[in-house]
UniProtKB/TrEMBL annotation:
Name of the molecule in the record: Methyltransferase domain-containing protein
Positions of the O-methyltransferase C-terminal domain: 131-319
Signal peptide: none
GO molecular function, one term: protein dimerization activity
Natural source organism: Streptomyces sporangiiformans
Length: 338
């Protein structure tokens, strides 16, 4: 029987997703094998690296050249070296900037069990689960440092954009809520010498914050204040910043935090909410949707949201002159005025 005529559409999206999946697998394997750490000991050819890493000499050249094609290694006359970015972020010896443990943790956390997790009935424990996550994270120095570095990586480009996108000349002080190492504040303070900033976070974040801000010569203008925003007021400032904070919590806590911001601000002060906001049509910003999925699976009660959602919450908590604006990459901000 003759097959019916159909309009054949190129499987472009399948191919893109298929190869992105394999790129991620190659990168995770490189992290697990310690490729980038080995290369800090010196340049090496394929045979030498295969011997150091315990790889098959037959498969090693293709594997290493994949890393070259992905921009993670350089190869010159058959000899491999790290790129600047790989040396800084993927060498286990660079404890102050190493991000590999973040990727490996995520790869082993839900990656193999996503389908099972999506099918499972999960209790909605709300803020208590997020509180437990942060209490556990900040109780351990190594986990704290790893988490803070990850937050710096996620916030770096948005922090630079924030320094340019707001009328900072009208304001003198800011508080960065959930500041981690203080990377956003560093961007603001370096760009605007008249500003002074407060980093507000759980007490366990103090050491990382003070080390990071001191390394940038800003210890005199960046002050750490330890506390729990579920139990005490936010510090008073002209601008209150929530970066990658609200999505961790359920709606009641989101509204509570925005109310806290309103109380901390003077008339005319600003609240700034930024993260990988889901586009209002929920059709384009896949990173925002992926992060929301991660929140649902790892922090019951947490979820990401659209600019329209955030604007509604800001109005509900007393803010006016609300606007949304793209920052960098997948990230955007919503700004409200008291």
């Amino acid at each position: 029987m003759k097959e019916p005529d159909v309009n054949v559409v190129a499987p472009t999206l399948f191919n893109e997703l298929h190869w992105n999946y394999w790129k991620t697998k190659v990168f995770v394997s490189a992290m697990q094998l310690g490729v980038f750490t080995q290369l800090t000991e010196g340049p090496a050819d394929s045979t030498t690296l295969a011997d150091r890493l315990g790889l098959s000499e037959r498969t090693a050249p293709d594997f290493l050249d994949c890393l070259v094609a992905m921009g993670l290694l350089r190869r010159d006359a058959g000899v491999y070296t790290n790129t600047e970015e790989s040396a800084q972020y993927f060498d286990r010896g660079t404890s102050h900037t190493y991000l590999g443990d973040v990727m490996l943790t995520e790869a082993g956390h839900l990656g193999n069990d996503l389908t099972a997790a999506l099918r499972a009935e999960r209790s909605r424990e709300g803020a208590s689960s997020a509180r437990e996550f942060y209490d556990n994270t900040y109780a351990d120095a190594d986990r704290t440092a790893s988490f803070q570095r990850a937050m710096t990586a996620m916030s770096y480009e948005s922090g630079a954009a924030l320094a340019d996108r707001l009328p900072w000349g009208r304001y003198r002080t800011f508080v960065d809520v959930g500041c981690a190492e203080g990377a956003v504040g560093v961007h603001l303070l370096r760009a605007h010498p008249h500003l002074n900033g407060i980093g507000f976070d759980l007490p366990g974040a103090r050491a990382g914050f003070e080390k990071y801000t001191a390394a940038h010569g800003l210890a005199d203008r960046a002050v750490f204040q330890g506390g729990d925003f579920l139990r005490q007021p936010l510090p008073a400032a002209d601008v209150v910043i929530f970066g990658h904070v609200l999505h961790n919590w359920d709606l009641d806590v989101k509204l509570h935090l925005l109310g806290q911001a309103h109380a901390a601000l003077p008339p005319g002060g600003l609240v700034v909410v930024y993260e990988a906001l889901i586009d209002d049509d929920r059709e384009r910003n896949v990173v925002g949707l992926l992060l929301s999925l991660m929140m649902h699976l790892s922090l019951p009660g947490g979820f990401d949201y659209t600019p329209a959602d955030c604007a509604e919450w800001l109005r509900e908590t007393g803010f006016t002159d609300i606007r949304a604006e793209h920052l960098a990459g997948a990230e955007a901000m919503v700004v409200g005025c008291k």
